[in-house]
């Protein structure tokens, strides 16, 4: 039994040892596995977080890409519609007119009618090097192809042509407002608002041309100028409809100046003479006479006097060289120039 | 001892049991933890894979967004530079010329020189309703403002103006190639490639105008037409430099036709008469005579005969109404029209 007891004791001790070893190793393994599990869980949480934020980022990039691509498609479609079948030509003006006519009102309806109507064509130096003007001074006259930039419908016509309603017929002043097809007239309101006029070439300078007899309003963008060639441009046998024939329908009887005008002009002239196209107040006065020699009032002005109770006392305005010239016209078509002043606001007088 | 032996036995059994339990539970726990670890590892692998592909996707979306935004910026910058300071006007032609002159070569250098030079202006119905032409037929002549669309530099000039090199001076045929400022000429190679010409108004139809005396090449885009007004457009006193004065420098002595031509024209005419601007082969022959009455060869053709060994035998080509007309010119400026045929390739004869 002692041996058995010893054997038992040995067995117990071995078992206890084994138990301890097993328990310890199990505890260590468990600890390791649990630790590893915790690490893995940590890593999973990190990964899940990364994945979440990356997915979010990817979605945001996708939204950005889709948005940018949509905008690009739109931009391309727009520029494509502008270039549709190569049928739209982007025209860059070669220069701008500085004219004695500050506003449309008072600007002659034809060239060469007002010989003192002066203008200066200032060239864009990037498009017009001085050498390109060599020889132009040898011609007496030149054509000017320009843009009717003051047309109220011009922005729409060029930016959104589909929304722009073109008038097929226009009212003709010579016909007392009767309508004619726009291509039978020189009306500025035409599908392609390009103007054509002729002017006298007075002097060529480095980056400008001085002109006279113009019917161009200040600020007009010029697309091209060409020499006037009598052998191709002057057609003796050309005929026009009766209603177009030159007549004196619009000529006035006389133009005279009030004392008020004569005292005002001296002080006004001092304010503008430095930048004027004219050399003296007298020359400027001659310009006024020439401009007013034709009834320059619009159809509506002639037909609808603002104050019907006393039509004779209506005061009309004309802006020349930036000065507001006021005048009256009586029933015998005699004009009295009343006053001249620096306008408070050009816009205010432009339409009156 | 028996008790102790029993106690020992109990202890051993308890220990063995505990060991078995501990071992089993450790094995189970270990199995579970190992299994969990494996699951977690699997999940991590999945997550890592997802993260990898999502990051790749995000990077690709980012590349797409950046690319689209760059393209958008470029497109916007381009359309902005086109609208720079509102100084570029998008011009849409009102119609296109169908002319008897198939190519630039042979097209007269001035209007009205060749009275049989016919053309038809076909209007864009979206821009030109028939009513807009009402009254145009009462005028004998009209101005045509058009685009020099065959200029070889036109695409560059309009698409990339900054890269387009404008020539300030051009060689003038009348001056045997001497150079003059481009604005002292009617050269098509000008900063704004707009042409101005006059034509006789023959007939107004619903959506077209028949014209004669034109110097316009087939396919010319037309921006505007305006009635010719003698009281403003015909300037009697206009003067030009000596070198421009009308002269007979370019007139030829005579134009005659070979037997080959006379037999060819009958069969050729049948091919074109249906769509021709002319009513008979004889009328077409008169057109050829009129066109060739002026030496239409270019400066380089006149100065550099292709075959210097026998300058008299050089054959020149002219394309009218789509037919290739070949001719020779001798030292006495007498022209012999040799043959007429349907060209194999318009391009081939256009430049010769």
From TrEMBL, chains A, B:
Residues 91-237 form the TsaA-like domain. Signal peptide: none annotated. Belongs to the tRNA methyltransferase O family. NCBIfam families: tRNA_TsaA. This is TsaA-like domain-containing protein. Keywords: S-adenosyl-L-methionine. InterPro entries: TrmO-like_N (IPR023370), YaeB-like (IPR040372), YaeB-like_sf (IPR036413), YaeB_N_sf (IPR036414). Transmembrane segments: none annotated. PROSITE patterns: TSAA_2.
């Amino acid at each position: 039994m002692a041996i058995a007891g010893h054997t038992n004791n040995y067995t117990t001790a071995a078992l206890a040892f084994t138990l301890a070893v097993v328990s310890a190793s199990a505890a260590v393994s468990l600890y390791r596995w649990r630790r590893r599990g915790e690490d893995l869980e940590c890593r999973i949480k990190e990964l899940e977080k990364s994945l979440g934020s990356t997915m979010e980022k990817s979605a945001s990039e996708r939204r950005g890409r889709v948005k940018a691509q949509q905008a690009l498609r739109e931009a391309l479609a727009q520029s494509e519609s502008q270039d549709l079948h190569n049928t739209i030509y982007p025209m860059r003006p070669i220069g701008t007119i500085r004219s004695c006519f500050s506003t449309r009102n008072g600007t002659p309806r034809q060239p060469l009618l007002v010989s003192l109507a002066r203008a200066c064509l200032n060239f864009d130096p990037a498009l017009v090097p001085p050498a390109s003007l060599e020889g132009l001074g040898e011609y007496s006259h030149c054509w000017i192809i320009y843009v009717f930039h003051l047309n109220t419908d011009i922005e729409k016509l060029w930016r959104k042509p589909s929304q722009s309603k073109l008038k097929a017929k226009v009212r003709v002043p010579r016909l007392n407002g009767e309508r004619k097809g726009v291509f039978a007239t020189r009306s500025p309101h035409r599908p392609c608002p390009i103007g054509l006029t002729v002017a006298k070439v007075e002097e060529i300078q480095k980056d400008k041309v001085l002109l006279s007899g113009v019917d161009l309003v200040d600020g007009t963008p010029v697309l091209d100028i060409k020499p006037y060639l009598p052998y191709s441009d002057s057609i003796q046998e050309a005929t026009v409809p009766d209603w177009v024939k030159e007549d004196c329908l619009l000529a006035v009887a006389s133009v005279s100046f009030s004392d008020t005008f004569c005292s005002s002009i001296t002080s006004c002239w001092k304010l503008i003479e430095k930048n004027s196209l004219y050399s003296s107040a007298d020359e400027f006065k001659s310009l006024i006479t020439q401009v007013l020699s034709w009834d320059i009032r619009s159809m509506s002005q002639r037909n609808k006097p603002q104050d019907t109770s006393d039509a004779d006392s209506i005061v009309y305005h004309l802006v020349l060289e930036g000065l507001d010239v006021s005048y009256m016209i009586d029933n015998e078509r005699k004009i009295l120039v009343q006053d001249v002043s620096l306008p408070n606001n050009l816009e205010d007088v432009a339409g009156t």
